[in-house]
Amino acid sequence: MADMRAVRGKEIVDQGDQIKKVNEHSFKVKSQSGNKYYDVKETKTGLTCTCHDFVYRGGKCKHIMATRYYLQVEKDTPEGIVTEKVHLTYKQAWDAYNAAQKAEIKLFDELLKDLVKVIPEPEPQTFGRPRIPLHENLFCAIQKVYSQLSSRRAHGLFQNATERGQIEHAPNFNAPSILFRNPEITPILHKLVMLSALPVAGVEVDFAVDSTGFAVKTITIDKEIVIQDPLS
Tell me, what's the pLDDT at 221? Predict the structure, then answer.
């Protein structure tokens, strides 16, 4: 099947005017069975396509192969198909990058405050010492992990959040560690990651394997690498 996709891709290119260059890293490839165009994009990990074959199977569909021929990445030689390496370069939008970096912490806290409010609170407490609202505890725990500060040093962030009205009370510095040891919190964190990604789900087709911003710590014990829980 892989060879057949290469053949179909070559046919698309040979027909002429079937591929439109949108910009340096984006192309539109005409369907062989209709007037529809598929979006083929260059990314740092390879070409992607919006056709069903690529979406459900992955790998190189005929539209990707057509684009590769169009870019002369794939070439026919007497020895067969030869693949050349093409190094992609991306211009850095420095103004937008600098603005985003400078506003990141403020925006993160504001978005986090709204995000954790979607988590329902447990049943009302009937006895014992009043507990911290779950959404405030989550706010501080996630803020602590995002900052990569120790629990004690991160307590200053909780106090700042109290002054800004993002939470009502700053919890004990050890509260995030206690919260993350609760196995019931794991599905809640998964839900928060999913909800935070929804606004860009329709426009983002490429993503980092780990784009959560949570650092993973590694330690060495007797020459064995041990990966610690990034939320610990």
Answer: 40
Domain boundaries, the chain: 2-83, 94-200
CA distances to 119, 161, 192, 204, 209 from 198, in Å: 16, 25, 10, 10, 17
Residue 220: beta bridge partners? 225
Residue 173 above 90 pLDDT? yes
**Cβ atoms of residues 125 and 134 within 8 Å:** no
pLDDT at 200: 64
H helix intervals, the chain: 2-15, 52-57, 62-70, 94-116, 134-147, 151-163, 175-180, 185-197
Adjacent-strand bridge partners of 48: 41
Tell if the pTM clears 0.85, that is, is over it.
no
DSSP-derived secondary structure for 161-209 = HHHTTS-SSPPPTTHHHHHHT-TTHHHHHHHHHHHHHGGGTTT-----T
Residue 218 has pLDDT above 50, yes or no: no
d(CA 15, CA 18): 7
Buried b (16+ CB within 10 A) or exposed e, 146-170: beeeeeeebbebbeebbeeebbeeb
pLDDT over 80 at 168, yes or no? yes
